[in-house]
Amino acid sequence: MGNHSKASKIHSDCYKVQQHEPAPSQKRVSIADIFFKAKELEQKGVDIIHFDVGEPDYEPPAEVVEAASNALKSGKARYTSSAGIAAVRSAIAEHVNSKYGTNITPKQVLYTAGGRLALFLVFSSLPKDSKVGIVSPDWPAYRELSDFMSFPTTFFRTTLETSWNLAIDEVEKSGCNVLVINYPNNPTGKILDPKSFETLVEMARERGIRIISDEVYSDFVLNETRFKSVLETNCDYIFSTSLSKSYSMTGYRAAYLISDEKTISRLIQMNSLVLTSAPEFVQYAAIAAFKTGVYVREKVELIKRRRDIACKALKEKLGAEFYPSDGSLYLFPKLNSIRRDIAFNSEQFALDLLEKERVSVTPGTVFGSDYRGFVRMTLLQSEERIKEGIERMAHLLA
User: Fold this and answer.
1) What are the tens digits of pLDDT across the range 135-153?
2) What is the pTM of this model?
3) Domain 62-291 belongs to what topology?
4) Strand pairing partners for 156?
């Protein structure tokens, strides 16, 4: 359970917003809007503290860079199997089996070019009568993909006041036959406790609900909380992850899907239509990445230290309420509680914070319209810059 600090004397009348949803024609501020505006300022020589996109500020393992370079030098830049080369599928199966004690086979694995494409393939493969449920707050790609495929979508709203716990009975009563989950969660950092997770999985199995589980942050478990993967269950699932976060391989575009052989066979066909095959030399870099366990453990400890420093500063400098993230690379503080007699507009705050204080955060509305009082902060800056960035946030609100 989270320790929610109380509101402080910091206040502002600058961030009022009407209490109704914007008209459909009114475009919300997106992650890209903030990020590229920050980049424009940087090109003009402005120093920006980035709490925006989830891109690690550390380099990939040296072994990854070396493997990619050696593969290129040895001519491994050709067409390959649409499923991924045999070596990378075997490496993935060995990696997850070692991590979770499972018995995944290479035939259950599809390697593809990035987490976005992986999820696009998954949503494209769903039956036309799919009714999608999404746990919210949620990474916007899920609802964008569901909308693109014209699936009826239900959002299961979780709240800070209940420590972002999911009301499983709401999922059960919803009538959805597909459920998208993301634990550790982006943006809240929530991990479902094992008992709740097992209850959710059992309900899904009994109701014939297919679970799409995006576990891209599964390495970043920051508390003693036991994280359970959908791979450890016997329900109908499609597991998705990428190497972008754990190995700082964002630009490599390396990801994979795991499911039953029939589903993977279908996804391989779709991957061949969209992509032909993922870059061969990157697949060798991915194989090298799975051998760098020490690197990953060091980065998890780094993020944990940064999380603790950010939590301390958010309490002391802002008096903000927040859930002290179980995992992931983020904190999701509630800033409208600082001044309870106004409606806080996180989009305007994010724009003003960037323009006036040179700090870039993501508005809470990116993750669902109910979260206009929140901002998402990444933990991908140095400890000193995290403290400085929070001090600048306090300065703007003061």
Assistant:
1) 999 999 999 999 999 999 9
2) 0.90
3) Aspartate Aminotransferase; domain 2 (3.40.640)
4) 135
